[in-house]
Amino acid sequence: MARNNRLDTPREAGRTLRPNFDPEAFGRLSERFARFLGTAGFLVYMTVFVLSWVLWNAFAPVDLRFDDFPFIFLTLILSLQASYAAPLILLAQNRQADRDRIQVSEDRARNERSIADTEYLTRELASLRNALGEVATRDFLRNELGDMLEEVLKELRGNTQPDTEK
Length: 166
Fold this sequence. Notes:
single chain, mainly alpha, 4 helices, transmembrane helix, membrane, DUF1003 domain-containing protein, transmembrane
């Protein structure tokens, strides 16, 4: 056998020219970057960077300047930054939308379970009320026993009076 074609041994992994990257790690990185772009710190850093660039290229000695007045190189850098920032922000928004969709689904399921539990408890409470309606209460038993005691005493009094007259 020229190549290892046996079924009891695994094949060697094929090599590819495509870069191998973890989409989850890339997504986390894009979220961190997008989160940073939305901060005041980023605006301060960009303002300092642009002002430094403009001031250096406007007031530095001519032989030390690297981007003359129309600041075309600065425009190129800012355009490049914007062209990368926009897709990263969209990726971060898509990931957040996916997380929100999952959270809404979990909340809906939790609410459905809560409603089912509440309905079950309501039915159980109603059945207990019905069962209690059929059970004699303590007050009812006391009243009945009191009435029976009075009847027994009346009867005893009625039987004892003729004995005393003799």
